[in-house]
Amino acid sequence: MRIKRLSSTVESEADIARMQKDEGRYKEVLELLSSMQMAKTDSDTRIRYNNIPFPANTRFSGREDVLDAVHKALSLRDTATSTQSPRSMALFGMGGVGKTQIALQYAYQNLEEFQVILWVAADNAIAIGQSFRAIAEGLGLLGTEDYTKDAAAALWKVKNWLTKTKTSCLIVFDNADDLVALKAAWPGAMGGSGLSVLLTTRNFTVATTIAAGYVQVNALADEDGGRMLLKVIDGGHATPADSQHALAISRRFGGLPLALAQIGGFVTQRKLSLQEVLPLYERYSTKIDARKAPGSDYEHTLSSVWNVSFEKLTETPTHLLYLLSFFDPDGISETILLQGSQRLEDTKFSFLCDELDFGDAVEELIRGALVNRAGESATLTIHRLVQSAARNRLNEADIVNYFDAVVHVLCWGFPDHSSVDIGHQISAWERCEKCLPHVSHLAALAVRHQYGAGNRQKYADLLLRCGWYLYEREMYFIARQMVEQATSSFDDTTTLAYASALDLGGLIDLDLARAAHALEPFKRALDIRKARLGPEDPFIAYSLNNIALVYTEMGELDLAYAAHQEAIRIRLQANSDRIGNSYSNMASLLLRMGSPDEAEEMLAKCPSLKDFTDETFLNTGNPRFSGDMVLLSRIRLAQGRLAEALRLASKALAFRRKLLGNRLKTCDSQYDVASMLHKDGHTSSAIQLLEEIISIAETFAEGEGQQARALYKLSELQAKRGMQTESMACKDRALKLRAKLKPELADAPFQEAEFSKLCLWMLW
């Protein structure tokens, strides 16, 4: 009994052994637990891997003091620092000062010390998620199917792998200016050889809040800048006169590495002598320097430098450069430009549709050191300050023109949910993911610089389409930002697109267990559709379904029943292929009303779910149908058929893990399985699943409700096992989360029903 109480490992093995005695009954559960255990075992393997996105800079110069400070802070050979805590250091400084190049130099210098080096583009939550997805794929932590490459799942898997691996690791967070996003990605304690974290940032709060220390990176001293410039132009045999000119140029540009690199590229491309540089520059800088603002020397100076390069471009590369200045700078897929430019009416962008003309334009920008191209992935990168300098050359009318062109190009990536009731569009997810960071970047530019779209309706439509994709991927908070910006951009609030925006905002509230907030926008969307389409259009049924779901969650079951009945009538009359959606929603309501047998009869009417075999659920490949499997498992549970309920719930969980990654719906399914295992006497396995829910939910802000409910359940199970200290710790965390999410429940009893109010009853 003492061993059983103290050793969770013994208990888990005993649980599994009991289930293995009746393997037919617990086949799905055993497969689930086995896959979880396999993932943990795989993390013990030592590997070598890096995803450093740039080649080593053979012309790097100076910075010995900064590199030395970073090395002292991050070296694994420093025995004074515990290997359980990540060593960390921030490089803080203005844009263009060379922070990324220093981080790059440090990474290449320490390829032998760190077996794994992970480079994360950390501008915002979307960029971080995409970087972690690529890392998880590189480390072999994701499946081979495209739809498993979910950013949130990848983030959790990589962080989980880091806590268990014996491999020595360095993580570089580059351009980490978003503190909230960085905290979500920040690794926890390291279980093996050690972890070091280096971040580059322009945000002093980030530099001083999350890292253990920071170094301020300043511009190069005049002499170091001169030497760097000579390296850039391959001036290995520079004359004393060349050295003096390089020193003067460095002094003129304040030793800013990015400016010196740009000058060097320009000198090399145009075969200039260093003696010619400053006189040429002065011809372009006089007017700009005359209106310098205090503290903004570098920005104006850089604009002057790039003006020299910009003036040398021919017409087509100039259009491409201005277009690229509105995209996310770190990975612009050429596919987006080639495919998204179809049917773009402005003739000056016609070159985008022709691979040869497009390639010629890219080549000229590369020769001018204005963009870089990764051949294998066919992606372009451009420095942020080059983008800023390019946009500064545009007048207001030009900004509108290029902004609208980018909107048109990016719309290619996303399906239109406004005019047709199309449901989930998983087949488009890969395309959406390519365009996602660019929509986010464009929206941020619009807010930061007050850029206005010429076609506001088209821009609102792009934001809305992107918001629907984010909603499907359960990135609710970012989706909400998109839909709010879209709503404010609509000139006409009587269109079907505006109704779609209202629906999306309501669905986000609904999934986050804020049903009462969703009712009003759903009703407004219904009114717009009735005015536009008439009362019998199938799209009216979609609105009625949404309203019925809200009533169900609010406990207004009679109102929900009436709305579902009307939706079913309209869809049957129109012979709609979405009738199955109405049947399954009505089945959910009937179960909520305490009629599981009637619920089963209603669910059986779904055309795509005949016979209720696993294949009919899973072969649809649609996330919506995993919800139907969850519903049937709950029906079986209400009918007292626990074994079948557990089998279905386990299947649904495996399906959601594979298709959706570790997000809200996956946590919800996992809670179902854990609860059923506990009912069936397998408490240790239930505890294992609950602990994993908590670990997963900590990696995304939307998961706090699931986290609180799992903490409640875990506390109860631990208390029954005599683990009072652990139980009280979980209880305290659960209560704090509940008070934060729903202050009105702060004094509510510590009961499952009260914590269930933090989660949707039926999360489709």
Relevant CATH superfamily of the domain at 49-216: P-loop containing nucleotide triphosphate hydrolases
β-strand amount: under 5%
Number of strands: 9
What CATH architecture label of the domain at 49-216 applies? 3-Layer(aba) Sandwich
Q: Give the overall shape, derived from the CA principal axes.
A: globular
Can you identify the CATH class of the domain at 49-216?
Alpha Beta
Largest sheet strand order = 1-3-4-5-2-6
The profile of the biggest β sheet is: 6 strands, parallel
Estimate the helix proportion, in percent.
Answer: 55-70%
**Average pLDDT reading:** 86
According to CATH, the fold-level topology of the domain at 49-216 is Rossmann fold
Structure description:
InterPro entries: DUF7779 (IPR056681), NB-ARC (IPR002182), P-loop_NTPase (IPR027417), TPR-like_helical_dom_sf (IPR011990), TPR_rpt (IPR019734). One of its GO terms (molecular function) is ADP binding. Pfam families: DUF7779, NB-ARC, TPR_12. The structure is a single chain. With 764 residues, this protein is mostly helical. Among the domains are: 168 residues, Rossmann fold; 90 residues; 164 residues, no CATH class; 97 residues, Serine Threonine Protein Phosphatase 5, Tetratricopeptide repeat (Alpha Horseshoe), CATH 1.25.40. Helix content is 63%, strand content 5%. The chain has 36 helices and nine strands. The strands form two sheets. A six-stranded parallel beta sheet has the order 1-3-4-5-2-6. A hairpin with a 4-residue loop joins strand 8 and strand 9. The two termini are 42 Å apart. About 1% of the residues have low confidence.
